[in-house]
Amino acid sequence: MAIKVADILKFDFMQEAKLLAGQAGVSREIKYVDIIEVPDVKGWLKEGGLFLTTGYSMKDNPAAQKKIVKSLQEANSAGLCMKKGRYFDSIPEVILACGEKYNFPVIELPATISYVDILLPLIDEILGKEAYLLKRSEKIHQELTKVVLMGGGIDHIAQTLYQLIPRPVLIQNAEQEILALVGEVREKNQLKDSLALPMRKLKARLNNNKVVRIEGENGRSRLIAPIIVAGNIYGYISVFESPDRKIEAIDYRAVEHAATVIALEMLKEKGQSETEKRMQTELLNDLLQNNYSSAKTIAKRASYLGWDLTKDYLTIVIDIDDLESYYLNLEYQDESHIQAVKEEIKKIVRWEMVMENKDPILINQSDSLIIFYNCQNLKTKQQNQQKSLSFARHIRRLIVKNIPDIMISIGIGNFYPEIKGLRQSYKEASQAIKIGKKIYRENGVYHYDELGIFKILVELDNYDVLKEFRQEILGPALDESGAELLETVDVLLNNLGNKTQAAAELNIHRNSLNYRIKKFSELLGRDLNNSDNLLDIYLAIKISQII
């Protein structure tokens, strides 16, 4: 246990000393003892110092007296011991007032006591306590390291730390989700406080990768330290103050050791996770490129990852829209946050699939998440479409609700029998996103079968032919001056030639509609009463929407 101000007041050599201010601060820990007889001390003060002085540097100077106590308080010093007799008959009221204000212990020493009478025994006591702390610290480090070497996970580390201190132990990931919680957190507010600290404030407090003490609303403290892997924060470890046991110096060291050991465990898990992700990516690429000798072979490879590809699946693709802009708008622009967003999307989808009793087969690919959605018990194409659309719309609402400022689009392909059908289903889901966003000009959920004639157009691999056809039919109306005329004819065709409905949708008079149609016909040199011309114009307008 560390030496506190209250402890030294009980020592024999301090029998004539008097605590005159800062009674509430006697629990401050003393880490070293020093003498101050100069006015400017701020530059060399360190935490935990107990300072002895005659007051020579601040005699007859209330401003200097106030400044020195403030500097000691800001350095989180343990206290000030001031000798009376030579320069002061009594400790100045300014110093005592500051001591009370900051709960900073101010002790009056009698003129008869020498510095050496205090320094030597205190140094011996501090060194003895430090040796004890080092011994306990080493034991904690050894026990926690042993857990990792024996293959224990994060839960086991938390259990071991709890046995060694013992205090409630909380381990969280970078998003402050609970990974392990051991010991009774008697008041719910304690746990609530630990989770409620804003991420920006938490990172600012922990910028030096050190253990930080945070006071809870209920008056109890906790220690928290970041878990650093490769320079990035992967999580946090906290220990809580107990009602019957205050935080001690050994707790700081225990948290430091635990943070290091947990970082090693997370690094190991990260390596295992990356290996699994690499295997998933390789398998996905082989599936989508038909790069396998037989369905039986690829199904066996999938089984090693826990995938049962003998069931019926269709493909759903979730795409993060404009990820670059999202990244640039982040308060903290780091890759770890982007990866955390992707993992959060994956977690939401996985949970909803589990709730539907479906095997969660999910693969991250660049800015997308690919889902093999189990449609085993859906007997018709219509059932597949309705169920997959309902699921996709539901998870999109959850993602947008839970991840601020993120925009996503979801594409859905059809179900095709056998493993080889996944390739076609994925292709359709990807095209549904690509074309759906161009047609509807917004983020949303798109099923391939809802694309209508666009399904035919996107199957044409030669986009140059499509561009030539569009230019041939609409050429004179493709510049800015023809935009209004193109919109008018598009609305007219979508209303099956009903001019009254088209005029109402465009919010113009029917005569204005007739004028635009006539002008468009003259501009293109085509008779709009000819069905072949109307078909050509309709196709050309649809082509304009996808290229």
TrEMBL record:
<protein>
    <submittedName>
        <fullName>Purine catabolism regulatory protein</fullName>
    </submittedName>
</protein>
<dbReference type="InterPro" id="IPR041522">
    <property type="entry name" value="CdaR_GGDEF"/>
</dbReference>
<dbReference type="InterPro" id="IPR042070">
    <property type="entry name" value="PucR_C-HTH_sf"/>
</dbReference>
<dbReference type="Pfam" id="PF07905">
    <property type="entry name" value="PucR"/>
</dbReference>
<dbReference type="Pfam" id="PF17853">
    <property type="entry name" value="GGDEF_2"/>
</dbReference>
<feature type="domain" description="GGDEF">
    <location>
        <begin position="311"/>
        <end position="450"/>
    </location>
</feature>
<comment type="similarity">
    <text>Belongs to the CdaR family.</text>
</comment>
<dbReference type="InterPro" id="IPR029016">
    <property type="entry name" value="GAF-like_dom_sf"/>
</dbReference>
<dbReference type="Pfam" id="PF13556">
    <property type="entry name" value="HTH_30"/>
</dbReference>
<dbReference type="InterPro" id="IPR025736">
    <property type="entry name" value="PucR_C-HTH_dom"/>
</dbReference>
<dbReference type="InterPro" id="IPR051448">
    <property type="entry name" value="CdaR-like_regulators"/>
</dbReference>
<dbReference type="InterPro" id="IPR012914">
    <property type="entry name" value="PucR_dom"/>
</dbReference>
<dbReference type="InterPro" id="IPR000160">
    <property type="entry name" value="GGDEF_dom"/>
</dbReference>
